[in-house]
Amino acid sequence: MASYETFAKVYDSIMDDTLYDLWTNFSLRHLPKKKHAKLLELACGTGIQSIRFKQAGFDVTGLDLSQDMLELAEKRAQAAQVAIPFVQGNMLDLSSVGKFDYVTCYSDSICYMQDEVEVGDVFKQVYDHLNEDGIFIFDVHSTYQIDEVFPGYSYHENAEDFTMVWDSYADEAPHSVVHELTFFIQEEDGRFTRFDEIHEERTYDILTYDILLEQAGFKSFKVYADFEDKEPDEKSKRWFFICQK
Fold it and tell me: What PANTHER family does this protein's entry cite (predicted)?
């Protein structure tokens, strides 16, 4: 097994599975029921959420920057006996994927954009690739989560075949954070290989997202918090935006 494939599997094993149920349930509450609705999942990773959407009756396409992740996604879809096209691509350019009724972008993937210009560019791309009255749902970290919760966060995990160290620090830009991840993953010959990853995330206040969505052309949006249909408060950790074209 290629090292990166092992690495992507480790990602899956440290990801809390219950989050996929929460994302699926939230989506099903807020996407109108419509036969064979076309759904594009941005930043689909190893395909777990795409498969959930397919099983819920959507006609799903998954898009991700990482070809390694998509290869795992394809294997996972075959094992689940579902047909999902997985496209290698950047959410800053959706010209290759066609039009959709719904677009989702979960797991704070928008927070990986470099600055608000890129966030606005993603919103415009999504808008241009939605059908009339189409819906875009995405989630981001709240400013509270980035400013108060993450800095100084440290998490270590020891499993039989891998060890992970995860430390988070405040970054220079407002509402930004750096996650430093180090993995030691056991190969088939018993040796451990080290992987280091730096993840930089940034969020904005709700008003900034509001302005960027309006500039992209969205006619309305609602904001909810933490997978529930409730308004955000000052300690909400994750904001969900439901936007209509």
Answer: TRANS-ACONITATE 2-METHYLTRANSFERASE, TRANS-ACONITATE 2-METHYLTRANSFERASE-RELATED
What the block records as the tokens of 36 is 């064979």
Q: Which two tokens stand for residue 204?
A: 């904005």
Describe the strand order of the beta sheet including 130-141 as a list of residue ranges. Answer: 86-88, 59-64, 38-42, 100-105, 130-141, 238-244, 220-225
* One domain, residues 64 and 155: no
Convert the pLDDT of each residue in 71-111 to its tens digit: 999 999 999 999 999 999 999 999 999 999 999 999 999 99
The CA distance from 45 to 169, in Å, is 24
Dist CA 104 CA 106 (whole Å): 6
Does the predicted model carry a pTM greater than 0.85?
Answer: yes
**Is the same domain home to 173 and 102?**
no
Q: Which two tokens stand for residue 5?
A: 């494939």
Residue 111 corresponds to which amino acid? C
Count of C-beta atoms within a 10 Å radius of residue 182: 14
Residue (of 235, 240, 238) closest to 148 by Cα position? 235
Q: Give the pLDDT band of residue 122 (cuts 50, 70, 90).
A: very high
Backbone angles phi, psi at 71, to 5 degrees: -65, -40
60: domain range? Answer: 3-142+204-244
